[in-house]
Amino acid sequence: MNHNQEALTARAAPILFVLLWSTGFIGTKYVVNNADPLTYLAIRMAIVVGLMAIIAGLARPKWPDSAGIAHSAVAGILVHGFYLGGTAIAIAHSIPAGLSALIPGLQPILTSTIANRWLGEKVTPVQWAGLVLGLGGVVMILHNRPMTGDAGLGWLASVVSLISITLGTLYQRRYCNQIDWRAGNLVQYVAVTIFFAIGAFLFEERVVHWTREFVLALAWLAVALSIGSIGLLYWLIRHAAATSVASLFYLVPAVTALMAYLLFGEELDALAIAGMAMCAAAVFVVNRRF
Length: 290
Fold this sequence. Notes:
InterPro entries: AA-Vitamin_Transporters (IPR050638), EamA_dom (IPR000620), EmrE-like (IPR037185)
Shape: globular
Strand content: under 5%
Subcellular location: Membrane
Radius of gyration: 18 Å
Domain EamA: 15-142, 154-287
Oligomer: single chain
Keywords: Membrane, Transmembrane, Transmembrane helix
Organism: Bradyrhizobium frederickii
Distance between the termini: 28 Å
Structural class: mainly alpha
Order of helices and strands: HHHHHHHHHHH
Helix content: over 70%
Number of strands: 0
């Protein structure tokens, strides 16, 4: 890849990542109406394992050693297992999709705090100001959305989801950066498929309604999210500091809110639009080289 292509990729990847990641909340809302959450995730990950096996078979990447396999499995269970499981369970237990979109909006603050100590990344005062600005934008976007669920399990799942995606991205950066993404992702998806299958057999009745809505949403989530957005996320983790990557999650609630407006007719008032602008400004501040 020449310099111009690298520059174009560096500019396009964050935008595409935010767009793809935001569709995950919309797609999850569709699938959990037709299947138990862990059962749906086990099916989704089994499909992804098949796709990644084909990709790895064609590319024939260098496989990690036993330590790399173990690290990849841990990263997969954090990034995919507890995060996706927490989000799906939260939505299935009537936690509003808007609140689930707020979870990654809170991630940058937690990521920056941990990265500052664990990875030795220096977070400047200006970047801290940008992170706080983004948090304020997230609150403004979701200010008039319902924030109640019908079960304490849903709230617990939301908190688990936030913590796991934060720890997972940091763990991936620290221990898995040198592992070929095709081999590493295949190991991660095998591990998390087993994780979800065990959870489904232990805690669910494994109900699935194979409606057109479910199949289409499942296909999108498996291909565009588990292959596309995760591949972009790991590429960004390799090429940027943890704080800069995490700041992109501030844009997810804004983009999700816009998608919900277009798909479900959810209104965007002036305060929410101002919050979107604040999120965009926060990403600019965190990522700008001062």
